[in-house]
Amino acid sequence: MVGTQLAKHLINERHDVSLIEKNEERARHASNRLDCLVINDEANNIQTLEEAGIAKADALICVTDSDELNIIICGLAEGRYPQVLKIARVRNADYDNLTRGGEKALGIDYFVHPDREAARTVIQAVEHGALGDILSFGDSSFEMGTIEIAKTSPLCGENIKIFHTLIGSEILVALIERGTEHILPSGNTLLHEGDRVYVIGRQADIQKIFEISGKKIEKVEKIGIVGGGRIGTLIAEALQEQSQVPAKSLFSFLSSFFPRKFKKIVLIEQNYELCKELSTRFPDMLVLNEDISDEGFITEEGIADLDLIITATDNQELNIITALYMKSHGLKKAIALVNTPSYGTIARRLGLDVVIPIKSVVIDSILAHLMGSGVTGLHRLGEGSIEILEILVTPDAPVCGEKLKNFHLSSGGLVMLITRNGTSFIPHGEHEFEAYDKLVLIARKGVETELEKLFGRQE
Question: What is the pTM of this model?
Answer without folding.
Answer: 0.76
